[in-house]
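With this grant's support, we have settled on a layout for protein records. An illustrative entry appears below exactly as we store it:
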Amino acid sequence: MSPVATYPFYQVDVFTNKGYYGNPLAVVVLLDPSLPVPTTEQMARFANWTNLSETTFLLPPTDPSKADYRVRIFTPTTELPFAGHPTLGTCSVFLQHLKEQAFPRKVVQECGVGLVELQATTSTQIAFVAPPLLKTGPVEEATVRTVCESMGLDRDRDVLDTQWIHNGVHWFALMVKDVETLMRAKGAITEKSRPHEFGIIAKYPRDPASSKPEDPLFEVRTFPHLDRIEEDPVTGSFNAGMAQWLIGSGVAPPKYVASQGTALGRSGRIIVERDDSDLTVPANQRKIWIGGEIAQCIQGTVRI
């Protein structure tokens, strides 16, 4: 075991400009070369103790010419190669810890899936490029029926479409017929749902005459049961995969806002925008940015 040391520590709230309404993230800053780097076992133990959906460790990059920092992302039970709200939250901590003042600026994060590009409008308004999907296509029928049974949904009456949106996290999505159906779905982990990480999506009715750009077009709920989490408040990785599916299929416009966390008393907002600045690039190859605001809630030190 590494010796005990004291590190800067932040807890931020992601996808909200008002603390305690988004998805919390714990970030331990390991940028000081004079301090020992905790072992993987120590990182995992600390993440298990925080009991948040994710805890991250902010490290120097492997190659400073390619990335600004490296991050390791842990749930209470496992390490992830990528996750959305930890990417935004860790980037915000990196910029605030360094007291970055020059905006807008590009940031490159190194993580388990490789290099992730971010754009920071300020240290608390950040977007990342949705990573490529590793698995797509309709979800196997047996799996759909398994999670529908767990959520108390009728497969034939309630579900309009399904899709694998695996992007480092093994997400799949179910599009349900309306927000009311989405809100009544059960989130509790069952023996049958335990092996899965999935989410449900519903579209809000839209009145062109009265709707505003900031009004959410979709409501989202996610259930990372594989990680022993019943329901995640706001999930960047799921929304990144969902955006690629829905924009690519024409269900969603190139720019929209999604709402998540309503069922848990939160009010997360995910801003999605495809980069259509160069129309010579095929639509399915254009970058899709997943953004939101980050509120700092706790700053101090932690001993590991």
Remarks:
- The mean pLDDT is 96.
